[in-house]
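Researcher: Here's the sequence for the chain we discussed earlier.
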Amino acid sequence: MAKLLVVQKSVIVRGVFKELLEKNTDFEYDIVSTYAQAKELLEKGTYSYGVVERNLEDAPKGEIIALFNKHNIAPLVFTKEIDEVFFDSFESAKIVDYILKQKYNNITYVVERLKQLQVNKNITILVVSDSSTYGSYLKENLNIHNFNVLSATNNQEAYEKLEINSDISLMIVDNIEPNINALELIENIRQRRDKKSLKILVLADKPNSYFTSSLLNAGADDYLVKPFSRDEFYIRVYQNSHTISLD
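Model: Thanks. This is the structure I predict for it:
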């Protein structure tokens, strides 16, 4: 059973989390209020999920996020404020989502996001990129959200992976020629898999209305123009996979 560690300094918030987790999930969990308590638990046991407070009494600068990352956990950050300083400070940190402490319903949302991460383990995504660096970057970001990720470096490998793995429900294509031709790849795949069973998201190198319209006409479901933020990437992934929408 995957375990969850919640770190929140408010006794009221901790109580609400306990109530919602007991009523709505099957998580095995621990709830603590300080960095020191979290550190002790993380050193003793293995956790798969985390919800953390950004500023704790004994860790006022978000050190709890680094602690969770050290133990290979990308936490949900449930905090009173999210500002430019926060994003600048934690741009490279592994974080699932940022959620503001505004009202009771937001705690419910956190719990739903945790349940979604459990669901994501059963969703297989194929990343097609001939760049080992960029392909690894995409895979790492998808793994943060607990997706099962496969990789291909060219059109032929993509065909083979789709043939062998019928459970692939989303294909992300990094359109880099000559090893990857997105239009050719999409046209051939649409002869085998329809949009109900496979969604296709293309990462385009530059804004070009003719090219992007050609992608959609060939059977792509969506596209993103580089460069894009991680948050925008996640939103498009959720919109084009069989999951609960982030919206």
